Amino acid sequence: MIAFENLGFNYGGGELLSDVTLRLAPGSFHFLTGPSGAGKSTFLKLAYAELRPTAGRVSIFDRDARMMTRDDVALCRRRIGVVHQDCQFLDHLPVATNVTLPLTVANRKGNPQDLTALLDWVGLGKLADALPPQLSGGERQRAALARAIIMSPDVILADEPTGNLDWDMSLRLLTLLVELSRMGKTILVATHDMNLIRQAKSQLAARVLRIQNRRVQLAGADL
Amino acid sequence: MKPNHPALLAPVQLARSLFARDRQADRVVPPSGFTAQLTLFTAGAMAFLAVFALALSLASGRLADRWASALAGTATIRISAPPEQLDTQVAAVVALLATTPGVASSRVLDTAEQRALLEPWFGPDLPVDALPLPRLIELTEASPGYDGQGLRLRLAAEAPGAVLDDHTRWRRPMAQAAERLRLLGALSLILIAGSTAAMITLAANAALSANLPVIRVLRLVGAKDAYIVRAFVRRFTLRALTGAAIGTLIAMIGVALLPQADDAGAFLTGLGFQGFGWLLPLLLPPLTAMVAFAATRYAAFRTLKGLT
């Protein structure tokens, strides 16, 4: 799905990531951990071509990210659902319209019943007509997750998706991600919440990656 | 050349972008009151000015053509001589003109015609017969024309009291002035179009900057640049079209209400459009829309290039 080969990245103020080689296999579930500022968000942005590597290469669906045109990137993102900690919405449009935005920009018609089922699945069935500023942090995260998966993407990337949530809400979001993994989606979650990782590992075979000294390593059993 | 280059835009593409049903694309950009009003006002004001610049240019052109065609090809010979020699010199000049290459015809103005020429200054009761007025001979130039210098020399030899006035002295500066006014009018139209493009580009840039979070969300969920650009372009183009239509309408009413030339007989009263000329201002709203389309498209693509 997404492969990193000898990847390096620097912002101009020193190297943030170096010599990273990793492959996200179809249907896999990965956590990405590391201290704040280690490069977790950068790694995710490289995975959906928001950033381009300064060394090595990133292949997204077998295409070199550096060779992609802007339209290619847009088409790729239709196959990648992204959830951010500070998820952004079009605040002037209701939740239902925001959730169906990926379908709208792809000029695809959604089934209203599917939308209702999806909103119910993430627990936002009664908030379909609410505006995003009216949602709580947890509701925003779940709305972002619904928006990320409405196109039935192959890959879901989540950057600190539970950062603003209490434990109960975090578990609820994790349950949704686990269900998606069981549907065969490839999932990468960047988080520093070890409890969340332990909880997930009790439910499915998730691999844990750690960014340390600019490199991405497979974490041991110390979690 | 890239396919999105404004120079490649076809009117069909403009129409399709404007009128294609794309309400969803429209809705993704939040309504922005300030830039909407700015674009509407700018397009309206510029179209209003453009109508007057167009009227000025057309009126100047008509004037230049009228002066040039009315005076071109004619000349006057004025004969001032003692009364006993006047008829002799007139006959000599007429005979001379009949043999001058480049002169198609000549005609001695009679007393009634001379009175008509003087009437605007001295009134209808002028005793023309009692005044020592010069005699006037009007000649019409053939093609190719006569040699003015040669004719003057021959006149000096045959009729010492005859003076050739080929109107060039005063006709040329007037025709040149009218021609320059026409050019200035056309230049004003170009400047107005440029100013409109600049103002709409600024307004579009302001709208794009204000909506960067919206654009980022759209890119994140897989929107192509063309989709995002279309949302902005459509909105700005329609605003410009509406503003220009209003400005043009008001200006045309203003021009229609100008006093008629018959009433005052001055140049300024001839500023109105004539005949099919009234259709020309109607081109301004679609032209403004095309300018807005190109300006917004250029601004939008430039902004998007800076985003991932």
TrEMBL record, chain A:
Q: Which SUPFAM superfamilies match?
A: P-loop containing nucleoside triphosphate hydrolases
Report the residue ranges that make up the ABC transporter domain in this protein: 2-223
Q: Which InterPro entries match?
A: AAA+_ATPase, ABC_transporter-like_ATP-bd, ABC_transporter-like_CS, ABC_transpr_LolD-like, P-loop_NTPase
What Gene3D superfamilies does the entry give? P-loop containing nucleotide triphosphate hydrolases
Which of UniProt's keywords are assigned here? Answer: ATP-binding, Nucleotide-binding
User: Record's Pfam families?
Assistant: ABC_tran
Source organism superkingdom: Bacteria
State the PROSITE patterns in the record.
ABC_TRANSPORTER_1 (PS00211), ABC_TRANSPORTER_2 (PS50893)
Q: Name one GO molecular function term.
A: ATP hydrolysis activity
State the GO CC annotations: plasma membrane
User: What name does UniProt use for this protein?
Assistant: ATP-binding cassette domain-containing protein
Organism of this sequence: Pseudotabrizicola algicola
